Amino acid sequence: MSHAQAPARRSPSTLRGASLPSWSPWAIAGGSILLGIGISAAAGLDSKIQWALIAGILYLLATFGFAARVEGGRQAKDRIATSLVWTAFVVAVIPLVSLIWVTVARGVKVLDFYFLTHSMGVVADTEPGGGIYHAILGSIEQVGLATLIGAPIGVLTAIYLVEYGRGKLARAVTFFVDVMTGIPSIVAGLFILSIMLMFDMQPFGFAGSLALAILMMPVVVRSTEEMLKLVPNELREASLALGVPKYRTILKVVLPTCIGGITTGIMLAIARIAGETAPVLLLVFGNPFINANPFEGAQASLPLYIYQQFSNSAGSGAAFDRAWAASLTLIAFVMILNLVARAIARWKAPKTGR
Amino acid sequence: MAKRIDVSGLTAYYGSHKAIEDISMTVEPRSVTAFIGPSGCGKSTFLRTLNRMHEVTPGGRVEGKVLLDDEDLYGNGIDPVSVRREVGMVFQRPNPFPTMSIFDNVAAGLRLNGSYRKSELSDIVEKSLKGANLWNEVKDRLNKPGSGLSGGQQQRLCIARAIAVEPKVLLMDEPCSALDPISTLAIEDLIGELKERFTIVIVTHNMQQAARVSDRTAFFNLSAVGQPGRLIEIDDTERIFSNPSVQATEDYISGRFG
Predict the structure, then answer these.
(1) Which of A323, A328, A331, B177 is at a distance of 20 to 30 A from B29, taking alpha carbons?
(2) Which residue intervals define the domain ABC transporter in the entry (chain B) (predicted)?
(3) Listed residues A107, A136, A168: the one ending a domain
C-alpha cells in the first residue's frame, strides 16, 4: 500500500503528519450508507440488514483506504480499531434501545393508576380492564422475603470466605458457590417443589421466595467477595494494631469501607431474581385475586403475570396490552432499584473531599 | 508507662519459609531503637512479631520469647488483641480509615474498644492530635474525612490514632518512607518528643534518620537470598555509626554493599 510513499508526502516536521479533516468519519459514513443503499437497490436486495451490512463494510474499507493514503499505515489501523469499537457499541446498544422502545410504546397503552391498583379478580383474561396490583404485591413480597433470606447468608458467606476462610472448607464453599451460580432457575424451583410435595403442601408465595433466595445467594456471595477483596489490607492491619478485635474490625472498618459496593451487588441480585418466572410458576402458581399473605395460598408475580397473560390471551389484544404494561412496570421496578443502589453507593462511598 | 522489651531466641516463619532466625535483644524503655539493614532481611517481620501482627499474615508463626516487662507475649493464654493495645504500630504507608472523619480516626481505637463519653473522647482526641503535632492544622476541620489530608498529615494522624489508646510501646515501620523531607522532619521531631512517654522502635532505610533519631541501632542482615535474616549487632547509635564491632555493619553503613 502507501507505506513506502507516506514519509515522502509528510511535511518536514517529523512530529506533525498529514491528517484527515475531523468531519471525514461522518462524510465517509454518509457516503457508505448512500452507496450501500444504492448497491442494495440495484441488486434488488430487500432486507435492511443486508443494506446495513454492505454500508458497514464499505465504511470500514473506505476509512482504511483514505486513512492509509493520507495519514499512513499506523493511523489507518487506529481508525479501523476505533470504527470496530464504535460498530460493536452500536450493535450492542440497538437491541437494548429497541427493547425499551417497544416496551414503552406498547406498555403505556393501558398503564395508568387504575391498572396499578386493581387486580384481575373478576376480569377474564381475554377481556380488557383489570390490573396488576396483585402481581406487584406478590412480586414485592416474594422478592423481599427472598432478599431477607438470601442477602444476609450471602454477605456472611462472603465475609467468611474473605476474612476467615482458609484451607479445605473455604475451597469447598467457593466450589459450591460456583456450582450454585450455574443452577438453572427451574432446577431451584424443582428442588423446593420436591420438598413441598414431601409435605403435601399447596403452592404459596414463600416457597417461591425460597427458590429465589437459592438463586440470589451465589450472586451476592460473588459480588460481596469482590468488594471485600478491594478493601486494602492496610486498613485491617491498622485496626488490628490498635487492639481492635477481628470481628469489630470487620464490622466497623471493613464493611463500612465497602458497604456501597455490597449494596450495589445485592440490588443487582434482586434485579436478577425479580424477573425469574420458572420457579414462581412452579411454586407460587399464579392467582388473579389479591393475596397479601405470602405464607398461604397461590400468589401472582409480575413475570408470571406477563407469561400467563400471553399464554392465556387466546389472541386477545387486551391481554397483550396488559402483558406489555406489566413488562414496563417490571423494567421500571428493576431500574428504580438500580438507581436506589447507585444512590446508596454514592452516599456511602469513602469520602475524599478536603 | 513505657515498658522494656526483652527478646530471646526469636525465630519467625511464613509457612515453611524461615524469615528471621534466633534474634535476641533488649529494647530499653523511653528510648528510640532503630532497625537498619538491606531489604528483605526481616526488619519489618521482626517488628511485627513484637505486637503479634506477624501471625495476622496467613502462615505466619513464631518461636521464641518476647518479654514485655517480664510477661511473655507468646505465653499461654495471652490475648493478641490485648498485646496490640499495649504495643501500638504505625505503618509504612499512611492508612487513615477512609470512612471516618479526622476526629473519628483518632477516636477509632477507643471507640472500637469500648464506650467513652463524648467529652472524654474529645479531650483524648485533642491531646493525641497535639501529641502528634497535628492539632493546629486540623482543629477547624475535625469533621472532614481523614483521607483529605496530605501524606505527611495523614501519617501524623495515624500516629495520633496509635497514641490515643495509650500504648506502652510504639512500633514504626518505615514511617517516613512515603513522605517528603519536611514531613519527615516533622515526624522525626515528633519521635523525639514521644520517647519521653513511650518505648519506640523504628524500622528505617534511611541511615541518617537512624543516626538522627535513635539512641540504639540494630543492624540486620541475611547471608544470602532465601536465607533467614539475622541480627548482626545492636549497640549505641553513636558506636554503630562510628566504630561498629562487626565488619558487615561498617560495610553496610559506609555503602560498600547493599
Answers:
(1) B177
(2) 5-247
(3) A107
Question: Residues of B with CB below 8 A from A252's CB?
Answer: 108, 112
Q: Let me know: does B215 contact B202? Beta carbons within 8 Å.
A: no
Residue B13 CB neighbour total at 10 angstroms: 18
Q: Give me the residue from B58, B84, B99 closest to A242, CB to CB.
A: B84
**C-alpha angle A81/A82/A86, rounded to 5°?**
115
The residue from A72, A107, A142 where one domain ends is A107
> Does this complex have an ipTM over 0.85?
yes
pLDDT, tens digit (0-9, with 9 covering 90-100), for A58-108: 888 888 888 888 888 888 888 889 888 988 898 899 999 999 999 999 999
A316 and A286 in one domain? yes
pLDDT digits (tens, 9 = 90+) for A149-167: 999 999 999 999 999 988 8
End-to-end CA distance of chain B: 38
Residue of B nearest to A252 (CA): B112
Q: Establish if A1 belongs to a structural domain.
A: no
Distance from CA of B89 to the nearest CA of A (A): 6
Does B88 contact A241 at a Cβ distance shorter than 8 Å?
Answer: yes
**Conformation bin of residue B65: beta by default, left when phi > 0, alpha when psi is -120 to 50:** beta
Question: Best mutation site among A244, A251, A257, A346 for testing chain B: the one with the most B CBs within 10 Å?
Answer: A244
Q: What is the spatial distance between Cα B42 and Cα B114, in angstroms, rounded to a whole number?
A: 34
Cβ neighbours of A253 in B, within 8 Å: 97, 99, 108, 112
Q: How many structural domains compose chain B?
A: 1
CA dist A296 → A203, A206, A299, B25 (Å) = 8, 8, 9, 72
Tell me the CATH number at B177. 3.40.50.300
In a domain, B71, yes or no: yes
Chain A and chain B share a number of CB contacts under 8 A equal to 90
